[in-house]
Write a structure and sequence with these properties.
Layout lengths: L1 E5 L2 E5 L26 E3 L23 H5 L9 E4 L2 E4 L11 H5 L4 E2 L1 H7 L2 H8 L3 E4 L13 E2 L2 E2 L9
Parallel strand pairs: 4-6
Antiparallel strand pairs: 1-2, 2-3, 4-5, 5-7, 8-9
Family: Belongs to the cytochrome b5 family.
Protein name: Cytochrome b5 heme-binding domain-containing protein
InterPro entries: Cyt_B5-like_heme/steroid-bd, Cyt_B5-like_heme/steroid_sf, Cyt_B5_heme-BS, Cytochrome_b5
């Protein structure tokens, strides 16, 4: 697919039009061999909450209210996930996620802490997560109740309570 920049907006052209040329005035009405209907304008929204420096402690991250995290318009339709009250913008990472995009897309604007820690380690968070942080929040809920974890016949963490 060819890419063409027009007036600081991005236009995508179908692959049949990648060899077209642009006239000096750069207006979309003067592109040789391209019908104006074939141009699709994508006006990317600026990041309202850009990723923060990786060395910034979690406690110093900007606070973003739960209502902003939940509202797609407020977060500019970015793929935000909440893990332990830290917001991660995974929009650009989702295509690289080894587990695929389905899991991540199902938690957009939601807390996924216990699910994340079942499959990832502190090292994963350090290597991949630190650069995705945009802020911290409070009050964003996980849509799923965490099931009890068992070791043998006893609940993990409750081994001294006896048999359940």
């Amino acid at each position: 697919m060819g890419w063409l920049q027009l007036n600081r907006q991005y236009a995508t052209l179908s692959s049949t039009h990648t060899n077209s040329t642009l006239h000096k005035d750069h207006s979309p009405t003067h592109i040789e061999g391209i019908h104006i209907e074939d141009i699709h304008i994508n006006n990317p929204q600026p990041h309202r909450y850009p990723p923060v420096a990786t060395d910034l402690p979690d406690a110093s991250l900007p606070f973003i209210p739960a209502s902003t995290v939940l509202d797609a318009e407020s977060r500019n339709h970015r793929l935000w996930l909440v893990i332990d009250n830290i917001i991660y913008d995974s929009t650009d990472f989702v295509s690289e996620h080894p587990g695929g995009s389905t899991v991540m897309n199902s938690f957009v604007g939601k807390d996924c802490s216990w699910q994340f820690w079942r499959f990832h380690t502190e090292e994963h968070m350090k290597v991949y997560g630190r650069g995705l942080r945009v802020g911290r929040t409070k009050g964003v809920k996980n849509p799923f109740r965490e099931p009890a974890r068992y070791v043998g016949l006893r609940r993990l963490g409750n081994a001294d309570e006896g048999w359940d």
